[in-house]
């Protein structure tokens, strides 16, 4: 197992705004004979904000705590057979934050009988600069969709407000435009209207041969995804009519999104419904906005609440352990006495 994991190529990363075709793209790539794409590890969004609270990962005790928390996420997601701790350690690429993620993805690919691993997590665009730096040989595919369709799809799937998706789209575009090395931009509109051409370009970017069977992805959708109503479009061939559905929204909503996302739309070549709108500033969603959007998504679905509680539980446990270890006090002492 050790050699099987360490001999894999550097992992691929797929990221972009939520509801922008990332799952469709990941399922197409996952249908390649050599590529296995883990669906939403949330590795950076879950663990990166609290990484400093785990301590030096070169210490086995700290390393084991992070691996244990990651295994808890893996068990809850049910996307792969959870590797045992010893199995994970035997396959470990390096005792680092990046090494743990690489090992997870390699083990996933090995279970799928593939030689290349990838991860699709929308929110990883917030960490694009760090991923580009720490994974210098990993291809990054940045998927994007018309912000009006993105907002419409978020509202339809999650009951979300317009502000959150519009703000996230702007942040994602800003992250992409600041990328320090070439990142492949995969437009949703190209993927559904000219799928073969779009996928051939992606295969060329990652250095793999195009395979026609990739478009039979709908025959092998994992049950965890197939059961979700907002993923029902994955159960059929690529549908070009899914682009431009924002026209079902009220005119004032379309105009608001265009005003909020005008700069990015113009930079990426998305045309406006009318004349170019006056750019309207948009502030980040407040905690209340995020809370209400989350409630709309959770509603009375106990599975969603269970997944949410799993993340909160890990965060609370890590922060409580950090406080009890007095690590925060030691950090403050060092900062107040820099000569020590």
Short key terms for the protein model shown above:
single chain, 340 residues, alpha/beta, Rossmann fold, 5-stranded parallel beta sheet, 52% helix, 7% strand, globular
Describe this structure in words.
With 340 residues, the chain is of the alpha/beta class. The protein has a single domain (2-308), classed as Rossmann fold, CATH 3.40.50.300. Helix content is 52%, strand content 7%. The protein has a 5-stranded parallel beta sheet with strand order 2-3-1-4-5, with helices on both faces. The protein starts with a helix and ends with a helix.
| Helical amount | 40-55%
CATH superfamily, please?
P-loop containing nucleotide triphosphate hydrolases
Largest sheet: 5 strands, parallel
Structural category is alpha/beta
- What's the overall average pLDDT, rounded? 89
Show unreliable segments.
none
- Kindly give the count of domains: 1
Rg for CA atoms: 21 Å
What amount of the residues lies in strands? 5-15%
N- to C-terminal distance: 44 Å
CATH class placement: Alpha Beta
Counted beta strands: 5
Strand arrangement, largest sheet? 2-3-1-4-5
- Helix/strand order: HEHEHHHHEHEHHEHHHHHHHH
Topology:
Layout: H1 2-6, E1 12-15, H2 22-30, E2 35-39, H3 43-47, H4 60-77, H5 85-91, H6 97-111, E3 116-120, H7 128-134, E4 140-144, H8 147-158, H9 163-177, E5 184-187, H10 188-193, H11 195-206, H12 223-226, H13 251-260, H14 262-268, H15 287-298, H16 302-324, H17 327-336
Parallel strand pairs: 1-3, 1-4, 2-3, 4-5
Helix pairs in contact: 4-16, 8-9
